[in-house]
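Ticket #230: bound-state structure for aspartic acid.
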Amino acid sequence: MERTTHTLLVGDQATEFATQLGFKEEDLHSDKSRDLYKQWKQKNCQPNYWKNVVPDPKQSCGPYKPKPFPPNRNKQELSEDSYKGIGSDNHDTIGMVVVDSKGNVAGGTSTNGLNHKIPGRVGDSPIAGAGSYVDNDVGGAAATGDGDVMMRFLPSFHAVMMMKSGASPTIAAGDAIKSIIRFYPDFVGAVLAVNIEGAHGAACHGIEKFPYSIRSTDYSDVTVLEVPCM
Ligand code: ASP
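RESOLUTION: The complex was predicted; output attached.
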């Protein structure tokens, strides 16, 4: 089987390449995004994901300073790490897994779909194994949801390793979600998995159902499927 080589371009190199392709650097603000920002400021910058800072991030827009880090965090405090404010209106990372006609597998996510993130935050999306993961001999997986929790469990890697051991995509995605909710019962998110035969499945938690799209091999059609969540 012919293998492809992958190159990841970041920063100035990525900008230069995009310019060569004909993309122009432009301001991506829209009236809608400006309006969202104005409303957010009026609501004391809520939702706001800062933790362990002063002044109280629920009452003030900052600037913030760190509180001394608590030495031993208990299970209750850990579970409070979940975003209470995450919902269908404020996040939607796009995750994609593709198996080409030569059997090469590729996966990727949009940088991150969460609104009102802390500047400089690195979520799960760009972390290999968390946001997405592929193995050319097995298949691939992608994840969406509360990234600060998800990235601790590498759910995409988990799902691909499960498929490597013979699990179906649905079982593999479900097992990845189960390993998270064991520690974070309030977790909101989903994992999608595809194997090199083209079988696919998904699992989710914290919402009612999770839709995902499948594109046919001849690129003529897209089917939207929905799985009920755990
Ligand atoms: N996983 C993303 C993050 O937490 C959010 C999303 O999936 O929309 O950064």
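RESOLUTION NOTES: The helical segments are 11-20, 31-42, 75-79, 147-150, 155-164, 169-181.
TICKET STATUS: resolved
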